[in-house]
UniProtKB/TrEMBL annotation:
Protein origin, superkingdom: Eukaryota
Ranges where the Fe2OG dioxygenase domain occurs: 193-294
SUPFAM superfamilies from the UniProt entry: Clavaminate synthase-like
The family this protein is said to belong to: Belongs to the iron/ascorbate-dependent oxidoreductase family.
Protein name: Fe2OG dioxygenase domain-containing protein
Pfam family, one: 2OG-FeII_Oxy
Species name: Psophocarpus tetragonolobus (Winged bean)
């Protein structure tokens, strides 16, 4: 049986001249059709540093309704911290596989881990071109004892970064909540108690037309705030009106997307956008997703404010713990269908 360090894609894919059959996507899922650039089909850009709060709210709400995605500038997270974080996380993924695995096996409950689709429980699934380091990062500091300690400044830098991202995520949720006329602080507390980061690493691929870094999906989060590697142009693509839009990285700009949980909470008023990640043949790409997650016991259901009149609730309630387990097992489409009330 293969050990985790032998499975990690980054440890062995650099010697390949072709894509192993287990990683070849079905023809209908391959990323070969037309892709629009984000400069031609712009993903809305919101300047959070402006003084007109009402206008910021309007822009965020419009983008969330139309795209399920927007980008933010003047967000308050310093450029130095962003650069330092990305550098440390790239350094992490550049370490030898054995060392990476050693750094990620401290947590007996496996909340902090590195994984790749080779060790997936679902043998029938097509494998994907990425390795991911993931761990919870709640402001309480819980779990820090299980975070990697290499590179040496990992905990210090990632600790600072995730604490800044927590403030930013709560600020964006407060703006959205205000626009949606929810009670002040609606998303504070259980709904945002258990944020997590996923550090995705996509090695260069011998044939990007056959593979995917991440297949089409909606995030199982309230919102996700993504930092993209500015050195790699091609990666994230968003589906809008049946067309794929490539979201090219802009230095120090975050990409925010609405997750499936917020779609449920807003009773479908906001819709989580489907997106995917394509690979490239020349450079490894790193992305850092800050995912806003509730506590496991928290019940996810449409907010009262959206079911008082018509339409009535469109989704059944479910605890986040159950939701997450089902999402992992069945994928976003099935869980969305299962929760939907016809
Ligand atoms: O790597 C990216 O650009 C996005 C990754 C993603 O969609 C995810 O982690 O949910
Ligand atoms: Fe995603």
């Amino acid at each position: 049986m293969e050990t985790m360090d032998q499975m990690l894609l980054s440890g062995w894919c650099n010697v390949l001249s072709s894509v192993p059959p287990s990683y070849v996507q079905l023809p209908e899922d391959r990323p070969v059709g037309k892709v629009f650039s984000s400069s031609s089909r712009e993903i809305p850009m919101v300047d959070l540093g402006r003084h007109d709060r009402g206008d910021i709210i309007k822009q965020i709400l419009k983008a969330s309704k139309e795209y399920g995605f927007f980008q933010v500038t003047n967000h308050g997270v310093s450029k130095d911290l962003i650069d330092e974080t990305l550098n440390i996380l790239k350094e992490f993924h550049a370490m030898p596989s054995k060392e990476k695995v050693n750094e990620c096996f401290k947590d007996p409950n496996r909340n902090c881990k590195i994984y790749t689709s080779r060790n997936n429980d679902k043998p029938y699934e097509i494998l994907i071109w990425k390795d991911t380091l993931t761990h919870p990062c709640p402001p309480s500091g819980e779990y820090v004892e299980y975070w990697p300690q290499k590179p040496t400044k990992y905990r210090e830098v990632v600790g600072k970064y995730t604490s800044e991202l927590n403030k930013l995520a709560l600020e964006i949720l407060e703006l959205l909540g205000e626009g949606l006329e929810l009670d002040n602080g609606y998303f504070c507390g259980a709904l945002s108690e258990n944020p997590s980061i996923s550090v995705n690493h996509y090695p260069p691929c011998p044939d990007p037309s056959l593979t995917l870094g991440v297949p089409i999906h909606k995030d199982p989060s309230i919102i996700t705030i993504l930092l993209q590697d500015e050195e790699v142009q091609q990666g994230l693509q968003v589906l809008k009106d049946g067309q794929w839009i490539g979201v090219e990285p802009i230095p120090h700009v975050f990409v925010v997307n609405i997750g499936l949980l917020l779609q449920i909470i807003t009773n479908g008023r906001l819709v989580a956008a489907e997106h995917r990640v394509v690979t490239n043949s020349s450079r490894a790409r790193t992305s850092v997703a800050y995912l806003m997650y509730p506590s496991s016991e928290c019940i996810i259901e449409p907010a009262q404010a959206f079911i008082n009149g018509s339409p009535s609730a469109t989704y059944k309630p479910m605890s986040f713990g159950e939701f997450r387990a089902k999402y992992l097992l069945k994928g976003y489409k099935q869980i969305e269908e299962e929760l939907h009330i016809n």
